Amino acid sequence: MSKTIPPTTRPPKILVVDDSVFVRDILAAMMNEAGFEVTSAGSADETLAAVRADHDVIILDVLMPDRSGFEVRRILKQREDTRHIPVVLLTALASASMGGSRSAEARSLADTYLAKGTPGHVVISTVRSLIRAGCN
């Protein structure tokens, strides 16, 4: 009699990008605790080097010193291996109404966007929704 080994599923892979170590560490810990496999990057250039086709979602800071999250997002969407990955733009530019030209840019470039300081359960729920929706 042979035992059937249930199929294993990998935890969803998330890339967390923020130039603030504090923000990056909080997001990574929160996402790890929620069952995600997390890698992180502290700059736009690190992001472009670290991102892989098997990432399920990227949480990407908008304001970084080397390149903006908007620019990174454009590059990722041009690359054949990463264009399918949904991006959550994380921004201090956001307001309740997301008014203004930079906010309009965020709306047009991201699969979704969140303001920095958004409660953790909302961030987790947003990422899970993107994965369930099959955006990637």
| CATH architecture annotation | 3-Layer(aba) Sandwich
Number of domains: 1
Q: What distance separates the N and C termini?
A: 40 Å
**Which runs of at least 5 residues are low in confidence (pLDDT < 50)?**
95-101
Radius of gyration: 15 Å
How many strands appear in the DSSP assignment? 5
Categorize the overall geometry: globular
Helix content: 25-40%
Overall pLDDT, averaged?
A: 84
Proportion of residues in β-strands: 15-25%
Structural class given helices, strands, pairing? alpha/beta
Structural key phrases:
5 helices; alpha/beta; single chain; 136 residues
How do the helices and strands line up, and which of them pair or pack?
Elements: E1 13-17, H1 21-33, E2 37-41, H2 44-50, E3 57-61, H3 69-78, E4 87-91, H4 101-109, E5 112-115, H5 120-132
Parallel strand pairs: 1-2, 1-3, 3-4, 4-5
Verbal overview:
This protein is α/β, with parallel strands linked by helices. It has one domain: Response regulator (Rossmann fold, 3-Layer(aba) Sandwich), CATH 3.40.50.2300. Helices cover 38% and strands 18% of the residues. The chain contains five helices and five strands, in the order E-H-E-H-E-H-E-H-E-H. A five-stranded parallel sheet has the order 2-1-3-4-5, sandwiched between helices. Helix 4 links the parallel strand 4 (87-91) and strand 5. Helix 2 (44-50) packs parallel to helix 3. It is globular, with a radius of gyration of 15 Å. The relative contact order is 0.16.
